[in-house]
Amino acid sequence: MNNRLLTTALLCLPVFASSAETKVFEHKLANGLKVLVKEDHRSPVAVSQVWYKVGSSYEPGGITGISHMLEHMMFKGTDKHPAGEFSRIIAENGGDENAFTGQDYTAYFQTMEASRLAVSFELEADRMRHLHLLPEELKKELQVVTEERRMRTDDNPQAKMQEHFITLAYSNSPYKHPVIGWPADIANYTVEDLQAWYQRWYAPNNATLVVVGDVQPKAVFELAEKYFGTLKPSDLKPLKPQTEIEQLGVRKMTVKVPAKLPSIVMGYKVPVLKTAANEWEAYALEVLAGVLDGGSSARLSSGLVRGKQIAVSADAGYGMTSRMSDLFELEATPAEGKTVSDLEAALKEEIKKLQENLISSEELQRIKAQVLASNIYEKDSNFYQAMQLGTLETVGLGWQKADEYVPKINLVTAEQVRDVARKYLVEDHLSIAYLEPQTINTSTEKKGVK
Amino acid sequence: MRIYLLGLILLASSQFASAAAKIEHWQTPQGARVYYVHTEGLPMVDIQVVFDAGSASDGQQFGLAALTADMLDTGAGTWNADDIAQRFESVGAQFGAGSSIDMATVSLRTLTEKPLFDKALETMQVILTKPAFNEADFQREKNRTLAGLKQQEESPAELASIAFYNTLYGNHPYAHPASGVIKTVAALKSSDLRHFYQKFYVAANAIVVIVGDLSKQQAEQTAEKLLAGLPVGKKLGDLPDVAMPVKSSQQHIEFPSSQTHVLVGLPGTYRKDPDYFSLYVGNHILGGSGLVSKLFDEVREKRGLAYSASSAFIPMLKPGPFLVSLQTRNDQTTQALQVLNQTLADFIAKGPTEAELIAAKKNITGGFAMRFDTNKELAGYVAMIGFYDMPLDYLDTFQQKVEQVTVASITDAFKRRVNPQLLQTITVGKSAEKSAK
């Protein structure tokens, strides 16, 4: 829902889940690098991911988006391997690779035949400490990132509205700025800025190496020792908390962009697993999101899209694994003849129902059945499993939370869902943005060319 | 004795390594073709029923096939949309129905535990055999499609893609967008959908794909049960041949975006094309392989002109597009287009170097196992093999066919199939003169 994850590959946000039989092996190197290994022998392949504890929420004003920029520059060569060679070597080994940056993490991955894990370790270890930041490479890559921003945000009405919306919703939380950064900041990064950011965050004691696939944990640990073991740790300075101040009343904004359909986005300030006063509150919010939007039988599809037919689409989103308190978001596009005001009233009515009545036992059972099933489906993908472990470890929750997900969801009661709706989905902590479409003038010109 | 055993083990493991996936194939009593792969380790199964009923079968009613597929789960038998959704979701099953240019796909992912599986399968069977196409549901889904079509018009990428297919295919059924256009969708009636369903959703026009932890006997029963209520009908899908454009053309759509989207191409290759592997491997070098390709290097790595620059052949029943694409800041369009065309022209004229070909082969064969290391991806391959009637050993011989490609075969195939004189160019964005104002 939010434009928080930037990558050239298409990835889903990690809504994590796992089960009790999950077996993860953990080993910490002397330099602080944590290595997590999970075996899956269904296919002779493995994914290897390096996760750094740094993302857009770590960035101060003036250099927003620098984590993402650095992610791009990590492909531009080291003392040992010139620009482009990283990708060339991975490709020659049959590998798939890429990287992604979010609010709370920057991660790099390779998927290869399991026997070639050493190739990826050698290259990742090398660029963890020996990146070569060159002015001429930065100059070109600034243009690339600017094009990326144009494509993802500037020319996309919904993304643009979302970007404006988060600046409204947050007062001082670093979640206020976009992962890709503000245009003026992108245009003015210097090699020194990137060098400082790299020095500060790229170190073995600020990283997690996750491997999932057709591997033996012991052999992976030995390989990790061999390639990453010699890297020097950094003296990491603690991050300032930047805790969001309390919101004192509803906030509203209009976003006027060239578009064809109006839409509305609403966000309530809510806690996440890491910040909830009681952990169950986060699980209850997760179930609440499922009541509204956990499939075609959930309330938004059934009630607003089909029943009242006032929306052509309506979604709810909550991510419980952020590092800092986040938003519970509702987003909808009105049906022909309906307005965003109609939708606002209908969405608020849905929230009110959750505050006043208990959800039905069928709804609760349905969500629990879905969670249980998804937990098995997710094991079809090594990549997804590695994403879960990497995310949980990097935001500071610990990978063990993956094992707790199903049992903790199973403990959620209808009363708890009602209680979190009453406590957190309150008007004073709500922000709303309305997309007001502006006319798009187009014309077509054809030329036959010999 | 020990040596003998060792020999057996080696033999067993080498067989494992060479057989990519054991696809079993049979026909149901009504003549639907079934493709089954047994996978172990997870108590789940992916089932797809694929009909030759994509947008190429729309006739003049563009969007008919898509809306028919969309509406399947909005009412069937005695159930309404809520009942259907609850039946699937209460057992954690994931259902989908949709269509592309060539095909309509009805899919189910479910656990294999009997009561859960049975409920999901029964629901899918009723959807396939007794969809209701109720008037009220039809009006609502039609309105949602119309809203989606309207929203496409705010996206320069969508506008470029629509114009590109139109230009490449003219009057051919591949020319129009799969979701239709506002005018034709607005004119559809629920009876049109019912007729389309009756004609195309028949056993002879269907294949069934089953990948997961079901025994062969269970798979046989599953396929039979799913299609039992469908009439045999006729195998459909004879499409006219695609005519190549007679000359190149350029079309610009003026649009108030910060980037111009560029698409260049022509009708390319089809699934059973004898040139397929030469074109596929050649394109991998030209612009098909992610972060390492000639286009990516020239456009992005050397010049920083775009975030993405790539090329692809989209093989279909008839020649699908060969397409080269990038997006760039409006005032750089001429330069970027020039780099794109030069890179393409050089490749067609000279072909790849031996070193480039070796690197591409290493990438493709070295990463071969990753193409279907999930049930989901494997099911996708099996559906492709089944639908296009490819040999059952398609995956087993894939690497060998890649290895057989030579510099000469690539150069020859590109020269014959990608004639620079026939390229169609679409640009969507703000033109340079107008940006300057």
Polypeptide structure, described:
The complex is a heterodimer of chains A (450) and B (437). Chain A has 450 residues and is an alpha+beta fold. Chain A folds into 2 domains: 6-228, Cytochrome Bc1 Complex, Chain A, domain 1, CATH 3.30.830; 251-438, Metalloenzyme, LuxS/M16 peptidase-like (Cytochrome Bc1 Complex, Chain A, domain 1), CATH 3.30.830. Chain A has 15 helices and 13 strands. Chain A has a 7-stranded mixed β-sheet, sandwiched between helices. In chain A, strands 8-12-9-11-10 form a 5-stranded mixed β-sheet, with helices on both faces. In chain A, strand 5 and strand 6 (106-113) form a beta hairpin. The longest helix of chain A has 20 residues, at 135-154. Chain A starts with 5 loop residues before the first strand and ends with a strand. The model of chain A is unreliable at 1-20 (pLDDT under 50). With 437 residues, chain B is α+β, with helices and mostly antiparallel strands. In chain B, the strands form 3 sheets. A 6-stranded mixed β-sheet of chain B has the order 1-2-8-3-7-6, sandwiched between helices. The longest helix of chain B is centred in the first third of the chain and has 18 residues, at 135-152. The radius of gyration of chain B is 24 Å and the shape is globular. Chain B starts with a helix and ends with a helix. Residues 1-18 of chain B have low confidence and may be disordered. Classes of the chains: A alpha+beta (450), B alpha+beta (437). Chains A and B meet through helix 2, strand 5, strand 6, helix 4 and helix 10 of A and helix 3, strand 7, helix 5, helix 6 and strand 9 of B. Strand 13 (443-448) of chain A pairs antiparallel with strand 9 of chain B.
